[in-house]
């Protein structure tokens, strides 16, 4: 709602005062899209599509402008989704690695996800493979208790791959549907991160050759374009398959959803809209775009 209000009102402000769509109008629109956190690359692409239609006299009114922006944004989101479709897992458990920088809401997201899956009647196991921070293990246990889900852990400083091994062994023995793995959020160096995640992937594949089935990168929506730069580091080294965008409740700049999809070439799978257990929504591109211009 907040994104819609900020975006559509400003589109009307930008366009409403002029009888025709000229360079001034297009500049104002550019500022509007940048202000909504669409980012410069995505904004330029969306505007180019609009300019082409204006040149061909296919767009004349505010409503028509909205129509073009809506179609363009949906196209970008669908393109990103097509690059990384959701995988169907024929042999459970499905293994989900969760990566991201500390403070983005990684642990909270894991808790919310467990709850969501539990509500669908799924058996979930959490794996505390962020062994670097003792607090991360404790925090995950709190979420485990809250959602009635077992947490497999080791002592702080332990080997993340060893605890993943234990978790997968337990998951197989107990017919678990989902194993959600918390990973260390420190961005030491790209090299370290890559090595650690590679080792974890190899460990998972010993149990389940098709694992991991999903690598979710947790990103904080309020960090906008800066978060996007950081995310690129992860996507380059971690084989990310989807994004969870947290704290969307804390910003009116929901355009960052589009920037992420376009610039990382990855779909947003879930959005976080608050601190409570139920404050997570599966992301749907159609619904997002419809609500944006409703
Ligand atoms: P981690 O260090 O990445 O594991 O981050 P945490 O899960 O501990 O979350 C950091 C802070 O962000 C906590 O205070 C959470 O309550 C808060 N948080 C996480 N997700 C959301 C969200 O979607 N909206 C809001 N408003 N706060 C969130």
UniProtKB/TrEMBL annotation:
InterPro entries: AAA+_ATPase, P-loop_NTPase, Signal_recog_particl_SRP54_hlx, SR_rcpt_FtsY, SRP/SRP_N, SRP54_GTPase_dom, SRP54_N_sf. GO terms for molecular function: GTP binding; GTPase activity; signal recognition particle binding. Pfam families: SRP54, SRP54_N. One of its GO terms (cellular component) is plasma membrane. It is a peripheral membrane protein. It catalyses: GTP + H2O = GDP + phosphate + H(+). CDD domains: FtsY. The keyword GTP-binding applies. Keywords: Cell inner membrane, Cell membrane, Cytoplasm, GTP-binding, Hydrolase, Membrane, Nucleotide-binding, Receptor. Its EC number is 3.6.5.4. GTP binds at residues 100-107, 182-186, 246-249. Residues 267-280 form the SRP54-type proteins GTP-binding domain. One of its GO terms (biological process) is SRP-dependent cotranslational protein targeting to membrane. It is found in: Cell inner membrane; Cytoplasm; Cell membrane. Belongs to the GTP-binding SRP family. FtsY subfamily. Involved in targeting and insertion of nascent membrane proteins into the cytoplasmic membrane. Acts as a receptor for the complex formed by the signal recognition particle (SRP) and the ribosome-nascent chain (RNC). Part of the signal recognition particle protein translocation system, which is composed of SRP and FtsY. This is Signal recognition particle receptor FtsY. The gene is ftsY.
């Amino acid at each position: 709602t907040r994104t819609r209000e900020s975006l559509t009102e400003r589109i009307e402000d930008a366009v409403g005062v002029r009888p025709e769509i000229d360079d001034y109008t297009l500049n104002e629109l550019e500022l509007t899209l940048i202000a909504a956190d669409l980012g410069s690359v995505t904004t330029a692409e969306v505007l180019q599509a609009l300019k082409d239609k204006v040149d061909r006299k296919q767009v004349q009114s505010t409503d028509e402008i909205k129509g073009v922006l809506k179609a363009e944004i949906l196209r970008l989101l669908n393109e990103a989704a097509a690059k990384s479709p959701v995988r169907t897992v024929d042999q459970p458990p499905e293994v989900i690695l969760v990566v991201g920088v500390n403070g983005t809401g990684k642990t909270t997201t894991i808790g919310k996800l467990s709850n969501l899956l539990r509500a669908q009647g799924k058996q979930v196991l959490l794996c505390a493979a962020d062994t670097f921070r003792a607090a991360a293990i404790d925090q995950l246990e709190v979420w485990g208790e809250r959602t009635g889900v077992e947490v497999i852990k080791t002592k702080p400083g332990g080997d993340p791959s060893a605890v993943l091994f234990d978790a997968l062994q337990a998951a197989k023995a107990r017919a678990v549907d989902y194993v959600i793995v918390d990973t260390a959020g420190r961005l030491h160096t790209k090299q370290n991160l890559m090595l650690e995640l590679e080792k974890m992937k190899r460990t998972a594949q010993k149990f389940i050759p098709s694992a991991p089935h999903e690598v979710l990168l947790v990103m904080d929506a309020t960090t906008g374009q800066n978060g996007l730069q950081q995310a690129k580091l992860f996507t380059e080294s971690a084989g990310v398959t989807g994004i969870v965008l947290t704290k969307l409740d804390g910003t009116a700049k929901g355009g960052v959803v589009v920037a992420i999809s376009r610039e990382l070439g990855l779909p947003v799978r879930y959005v976080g809209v608050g601190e409570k257990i139920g404050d997570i929504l599966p992301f749907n591109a159609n619904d997002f775009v419809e609500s944006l211009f409703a």
